Amino acid sequence: MDPAYWRTSQKKDVLARLETLKAQQAALELRVLASAGDIAAEAGDKDASAWMRAELFVDKSAARAQLKLAAAVSKHELLAAGLADGVVSRDKARAISKALNAIETNPAASTEDLLLAEKLLVDYATRLTANELRIVGKRILVEIDPARFEDAEAKALLAEEERAQQKTALRVWDNHDGTVGFDGVLPVALGMRFKTHVEAWAQPRKQQLVEKGAPLPPWERLMGQGFARLLETIDPDALPRHGGDATTINVVISLDALRKELGTAILGSDEANGTTISATEARKMACNATIIPWVLGTDGQVLDAGRSSRFFQPIQRKALRLQQKCCQAEGCDMPPEWCDAHHLTPWSLGGKTDLKDGILLCPHHHRLAHAPGFTHERLPDGTVRFTRRP
Fold first, then answer.
1. Which has the closest alpha carbon to 333: 365, 288, 376?
2. Mean pLDDT for the chain?
3. Looking at the structure, do residues 176 and 322 belong to the same domain, yes or no?
4. What pLDDT shows up at residue 328?
5. pLDDT of res. 340
6. 26 with 116, same domain?
7. How high is the pLDDT of residue 278?
8. What region holds the HNH nuclease domain (predicted)?
9. The Cα angle at residue 199 between residues 194 and 205, in degrees rounded to 5
10. Is residue 253 domain-shared with residue 225, that is, in the same domain?
11. C-beta separation of 95 from 134 below 8 A
12. What's the pTM value of the predicted model, to 2 decimals?
């Protein structure tokens, strides 16, 4: 019978059973793939992906991803059992196996930690989506033993943010059809701000169409139009301008993490709707963004909320440019227009936003000023010397 004529309860029941069947089918497929070494030997390839490409017409990259997942699942009994029982889907298995692989390479994690993490994640799979599992998986060790793994997580975040700086890139090209194409990679903190800006321009466009009763175009098009409007509204007289009011954001951070060098913060309202950044990055953002900090005590009690951070005003930046002429890091001559205004005494530690406490630093040295791996001191000539910690 055509499903259009089914009762709602029938549709819900069939969809639920199909999800279970798909998970069980994936379990069987992954078990076979995990033991497909003889197929690879017969095909003369390093794995069975060549046979899958030739006989099943599966793209080789997709086939190898399946083989990789099969190998990962075969190492974890509880994960494999969850698939076989139909409570863990293929996507959830991929998120769990990625988290478990990270734990296996973590020198601070024991075999007991790995087994407990697997048990917890398979249990979470019964009530979380694959994306939510991915988020939980990144912090599962902190949940198991906060005392041992909180600082390790903060160090990992710092390393990840440093790698992100090295990966930052932008390509722009002419499509010769009246359009320009571009793609790029940004550090997560900047990427989330970029996304927020574009969405702010895309949403009014969407609301106007809804009010007119017009059909909505694809969201990607609305985002593209929002990005175009964002570019159109930039004041040319303000370019180049660095260290301005970048955006207004929510940063959720514990009081202890705010005070110590190593710590984590949530950029956004919560982990599901935001992203985790290091406390170092949060303090750096406080130099040139309007921050609404939500500082939490040990029991999650809100200690401070809604207090905008102090940031250097345009007239102060002009004065700094006249006084300092360039980046104040020792030996750096980056022009003042390309520099950020930095608090010598961090705002989060009680620093004041006045000229005697402000210096110009280029983006590179501004990052070093907030990096726990470096110390800095003001020299008699006013420049700042950076030294890597021993």
1. 365
2. 81
3. no
4. 92
5. 83
6. yes
7. 77
8. 315-367
9. 145
10. no
11. yes
12. 0.56
Residue 71: which of 45, 51, 100 has the closest Cα? Answer: 100
Task: Please tell me whether residues 212 and 270 are part of one structural domain.
Answer: no
Q: Which two tokens stand for residue 284?
A: 């750096």
pLDDT of residue 8: 94
364 in the same domain as 278 = no
**Separation of alpha carbons 351 and 256, rounded Å:** 18
Number of domains within the chain: 4
Q: ω into residue 336 within 30 of 0, thus cis?
A: no
55's tokens: 């006989």
Structure tokens, 9? 């309860």
Low-confidence residues of the chain: pLDDT under 70? 205-206, 208-209, 212, 232, 235-262, 267-275, 282-313, 315, 347-352
The kind and range of the H/E element at 339 are none
Domain-ending residue, one of 250, 274, 291 = 291
Task: Report the distance separating Cα 137 and Cα 121, nearest Å.
Answer: 7
Query: What sign does the CA torsion over 365, 367, 371, 373 have?
Result: negative
Residues 327 and 197 in one domain: no
Residue 277: give the domain boundaries.
242-291
Q: How many CB atoms lie within 10 A of CB 141?
A: 25
Contact partners, residue 306, CB within 8 Å, separation at least 6: 292
pLDDT, position 239: 58
